[in-house]
Structure formats: structure tokens, C-alpha cells
Amino acid sequence: MKYSYRLPASIIFVVFVLSGCSQSRQTEVQLSSLFEDTVTTTVFFDFDKAELDATARAALGEQAAFILQYPTIWFRVEGHADRVGSVDYNEVLGLRRANAALEYLVSQGVQRSQLEAVVSFGEERPAIEIEARERRNRRVVTEVGGTLDPVCNCRKRPGVE
After folding, report:
1. 107-117 pLDDT, tens per residue?
2. Can you list the alpha helix ranges (DSSP code H) found in the chain?
């Protein structure tokens, strides 16, 4: 005797969506670890500058090569500053640094839709707790942000539906 049972389409859809979400999040976490292990994720800047030096361009070139392999993933480019200067000035400087890195990645063939550089932490998240000039605080950090929605080519945030 042969039995067959058909699940309603709404249940199949829910199972598909839920399984896709967890798999997508797991993939993002694995890809984030791979990105951090494979390329230099941080570039540094001279005091009060947002220009990329040769070392920064080389690191961003590595990042671009990696990013180009994953067209369905978007990346966050975070700008930072040291604690010298006003909070407002450092937020703007951090954003200038993030945009400099973003523009370089785009010049290397990365799609603009894969990048977010609206994040500037200014002096809020120092790598080194110090009030003086500190190169390790004057940086841009690139990290995996999430997946791109294939329908709208827009960013999906991890854990947000």
C-alpha cells in the first residue's frame, strides 16, 4: 500500500524560508571567519588624513579580490579616528576614511551595492585606550555585513527578516 501526503504550500514556504535563514546566517558567520583569516581587514591612516598609502591599497586589493568571489554578500566598511580633536570632527574624519576605502574597493571592481560605508565610529571604539595620537586607532575595518537580497539587490542584515 502506497501512502502519499501533500503538505500545504504555506507550510512548505515557511520551512523553506526558515531553513534558508539559518543556513544564510551560518554561511555569513563562516564567511566572516574566512575573510578575517584570509585578508588584512584593517588599514591604517596618518594623523588627520584620509588618504590611502601603499600598504592600505595593498590590503584593500586583497579585500577586493576576496569580495569579488562572493557577489551575494555585502561588506561594512567602518571608519575610526583617534581621540585627538573634537568628537564631531573625528566622526567626519572616520567617514572620510571609510569612503576612501570604499571608493578604492569600487575602483578594483567591487560592486557599490556590496559595500556600506555610512558607518563612522570616530573615536567611540578605539583599538587602544589612549588619549594621545595612536595610529592603531586611525583605521578602517572591513567586515562581512550580510547577504544581498537577490530580488532588490538590497542588503539584508543578519537576524533581521
Report:
1. 999 999 999 87
2. 9-38, 54-67, 87-107
pTM for this prediction: 0.74
**Tens digits of per-residue pLDDT, 126-153?**
666 666 566 667 899 999 998 877 666 5
Listed by start position, the domains of the chain span 9-156
- Quick one: fold of 9-156? 60s Ribosomal Protein L30; Chain: A; (3.30.1330)
HEC sequence for 52-65: CCHHHHHHHHHHHH
**Among candidate residues 109, 107, 93, 104, the one with its CA nearest the CA of residue 45:** 93
* Cβ partners under 8 Å of residue 87, min gap 6: 122, 123
Q: Which sign, positive or negative, has the C-alpha torsion 60, 66, 68, 72? A: negative
